[in-house]
């Protein structure tokens, strides 16, 4: 029950309320394999802890936030493994929340069963989670 920033507080609240979905908004489109400013970094559409945990390189925290993407990922993993799907997406687009609720393919999905979809192509895993 301890939180260290807004993302961890949102995760705890989602758990307490038994939410169906948690959407964490960021200043980037989702979780990238490296700093978003690096042209070699790729957007991760479905986070698989066993695959991505050791492969991701986090950049600096934003100048307005406390925990950066590291805090978002930690909160998302905690909520997802407790049974609440999580999407990290950009808060700059005015309709991203609606797009998530419509099942559009944006942001990064965290889901407790994502590891079992690893052999399924990325779009198929996402479609399974949306369904």
Automatic annotation (TrEMBL):
InterPro entries: AceGlu_kinase-like_sf, Asp/Glu/Uridylate_kinase, Glu/AcGlu_kinase, Glutamate_5-kinase_CS. Residues 4-90 form the Aspartate/glutamate/uridylate kinase domain. GO terms for molecular function: ATP binding; glutamate 5-kinase activity; glutamate-5-semialdehyde dehydrogenase activity. GO terms for biological process: glutamine family amino acid biosynthetic process. SUPFAM superfamilies: Carbamate kinase-like (SSF53633). The keyword Transferase applies. It comes from the Eukaryota. The keyword Kinase applies. Its EC number is 1.2.1.41, 2.7.2.11. Keywords: ATP-binding, Kinase, Nucleotide-binding, Oxidoreductase, Transferase. This is Delta1-pyrroline-5-carboxylate synthase. It comes from Cedrela odorata.
